[in-house]
Cthe_2314 family HEPN domain-containing protein (Paenibacillus chibensis), 239 residues
Amino acid sequence: MLRTLLGEMPRQNNGLLEEAIERMFQTIQLLQKEIEKNEDPSHDFRKLEIWTRGLVSSIDELEQSWYAACFFRKSVKAGYVDDMNIQEQSEYARYVYFYKNGFIRVFSILDKLGTVLNDLFDLNTSKVKAHYSYFTVLRQFHYLKNHQSLADELTNIKNEYRSALNALRKRRNAEIHYMNSEMQDDLWQRHQGLHDKVELEDLDKHLEDLKQGLDMVCKSLIASYRYANELWAKKGMKV
């Protein structure tokens, strides 16, 4: 959608994004066949289908946010906020909007995935922490020693992207709990030198962190839904 609004060609899914979406659609097809066969009196399969469709939409929106942020970043040439003309300020504001939307969605998707995993594998994470995150669910996997191969794979993925996730988490927390993350950068610089110009943050590093976050989310979705699909296949559920 955003590519069309920006005058670009529609996205052709490939790589990790394509595999993540394909795995989730395989799950949706499995759930639909099971609903048709057994009518799903408890509505458990229907709930998982709806949640999975929501994750498909969410990962699509995250990728679009990253792409749009990259698109508007190209128009930001100045190294200092004070040196931007009106047009460049507008392009920078658009970059900031989609970049923020992206890093907030990284953790939103992970927490939604945590909800799916908690329900799918009966982890009862809410007994440990009422408002739990994806990372609480990972710890619960290890504590219960359930589905250890999946738990290990998801933990390895998390560790692989630890640096980028930590950077994104700090900016997410600043945005949601304290103040706008770019305002925090500006205030720190003003504190260093009251009359100095405000230097722009490292936009390329921020976008690379966001891309790493997108990749981490895709890999986590792939691992989770591949494991669930294989588990159901062993039980005779096939598309």
